[in-house]
Amino acid sequence: METTVTEPPKKRLRAPRPSFVPELVYFEPGALEYEKGKRIYQWAQDQGIPLRMTTSHNRITNFPGDSELEQYKIAKRTLVVGVRKTLKFDTSKPSAEYAIPIATGCMGHCHYCYLQTTLGAKPYIRVYVNTTEIMEAAQRYIEERKPDITRFEAACTSDPVGLEPITGSLEELINFMADQEYGRLRFVTKFHHVDSLLDLNHQGHTRIRFSVNSKYVIKHFEPATSSFEERIEAAGKIAKAGYPLGFIIAPIIWHDDWEQGYGELIEALAAALPPEARTQLTFELIQHRFTKTAKSTIERRYPRTKLEMDIEQRKYKWGRWGQGKYVYPDEKAEALRMYLSERIFEHFPESTIDYFT
Ligand code: SF4
Predict the structure, then answer these.
(1) Beta bridge pairs of residue 151
(2) Which of 107, 248, 275, 314 has its CA 20 to 30 A from that of 146?
């Protein structure tokens, strides 16, 4: 009897997320006087992206689109290239002393993102071309505090890795910080575009953290960012390049099968990291939270979101600077903290959990 052997269907692999290409690029006065400004101009021209001049990013108000939602989406794909005028850095406690400003805004569409409220009506992306002046300012902060170490966080208002293929600013900061006895750099990302950073002589002075989550959370709440697999693969590369490495698991969300989802995440990390990366590994754990203002913005911008923001099911946590936040009730928060801590120490006994909040 003849048997027909049918080949199993080929698993369709997702194409890697290409690096970000904006739909529109604006240049502010002075930007083209800097080498980086000229380079971005040339790049945008080669890409065939429409280029415009503006006297100030504040004047960019009319984004194309028939609805507020469409305009918001186009704004998120608009790049403004400018000169950073304020060289006074904001503080960035607890993870660093200062925020180092190289970009503002992000092309990601994470439903819960803090930029929704902090950037308000200005969701376009701004990158700064005067990196040398920014580094000189950092140098002054380092001098003021030495012999204490001064840490700079480069991802307070953006995701700089997603923009690195356009700006090259992280490469400059990493090289700069390598020479600083008392300076350290850190940043966090949901993107995997790290290849240009792998061969740098970083001297261990830059800690790169990946923001990771369960597949469920990435799939439902983090559109336009790199996939679970891409981030984990990138973390493996960063570990092999000898950078101090960390993970931020945020926001930790109580979803169906969350134990399975977060268990799978920690196992995937354990499978991807070489032994030498495990000793200095740090974890930061942040449970999902929202303010009333954020809730109404999210519901407007992502009207079909599955993000649970039911005030009745949350605990109110007073905020130090005004509006309080809704977090999980203690019982749920404790269950999340316990489960994740146990999985982390099971697979990475030498790692540190910096905090759960
Ligand atoms: Fe916000 Fe980060 Fe998502 Fe960008 S990647 S939208 S900065 S949470």
Answers:
(1) 184
(2) 248
